[in-house]
């Protein structure tokens, strides 16, 4: 079976390199490209055609949520996992409305990165446990929200 193809987009090279190193430990995952901003990412997607993009929100030239909207218009089936430091619910709501399937806090990434990727691969939505606790909602509730938004 072919590895699941992932492109990383974060303006911090060290973050991209760290995530890539972690993902290289899994035989069924392959990082096929990296971008430092949204514009660079959009150019890469035409060529690389990944299954998933792991995308930061705060990037130069084209922010992550705007990039996600453009990806979803052109590559409807491509999965997007936002990986960010932003806990504020406004960012989460904007990301979900842009069509992303997952929202992972960088502080949760060490424990939850593989779980988030696998959840998206299964066609479900993922939100960091820290955010779920802060919002006071269950994982099941958020799965229903994602299902409603993504099945439109």
Write the layout of secondary structure elements.
Layout: E1 4-9, H1 13-23, E2 29-35, H2 38-48, E3 52-55, H3 64-74, E4 79-84, H4 89-98, E5 102-105, H5 106-121, E6 126-127, H6 129-135, H7 139-150
Parallel strand pairs: 1-2, 1-3, 3-4, 4-5, 5-6
Account of the protein in words:
By secondary structure, the chain is α/β, with parallel strands linked by helices. It has one domain (4-150): Response regulator (Rossmann fold). It is built from seven helices and six strands, in the order E-H-E-H-E-H-E-H-E-H-E-H-H. Helix 2 runs parallel beside helix 3 and helix 3 (64-74) runs parallel beside helix 4 (89-98).
Task: Give me some keywords for this one.
152 residues, alpha/beta, Rossmann fold, six-stranded parallel sheet
Give a short summary of the structure.
By secondary structure, this protein is α/β, with parallel strands linked by helices.
Strand content: 15-25%
Number of helices: 7
CATH fold call: Rossmann fold
Query: For the terminal residues, how far apart are their CA atoms?
Result: 31 Å
CATH class membership: Alpha Beta
Could you say what the CATH architecture is? 3-Layer(aba) Sandwich
How much helical structure, as a percent, in the residues?
40-55%
* Count of individual beta strands: 6
Q: What's the CATH H-level homologous superfamily?
A: Response regulator
**Molecular shape:** globular
Low-confidence stretches: none
Overall tally of structural domains: 1
Query: Spatial order of the strands in the main sheet?
Result: 2-1-3-4-5-6
């Amino acid at each position: 079976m072919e590895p699941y193809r992932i492109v990383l987009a974060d303006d911090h090279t060290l973050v991209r390199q760290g995530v890539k190193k972690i993902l290289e430990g899994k035989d069924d995952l392959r990082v096929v490209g990296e971008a430092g901003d949204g514009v660079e990412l959009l150019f890469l997607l035409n060529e690389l055609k990944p299954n998933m993009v792991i995308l930061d929100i705060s990037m130069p030239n084209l922010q992550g949520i705007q990039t996600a909207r453009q990806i979803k218009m052109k590559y409807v089936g491509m999965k997007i996992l936002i990986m960010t430091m932003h806990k504020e619910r406004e960012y989460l709501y904007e990301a979900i409305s842009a069509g992303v399937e997952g929202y992972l806090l960088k502080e949760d990434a060490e424990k939850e990165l593989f779980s988030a990727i696998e959840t998206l691969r299964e066609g479900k939505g993922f939100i960091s446990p820290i955010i779920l606790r802060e919002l006071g909602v269950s994982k099941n509730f958020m799965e229903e929200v994602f299902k409603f938004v993504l099945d439109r």
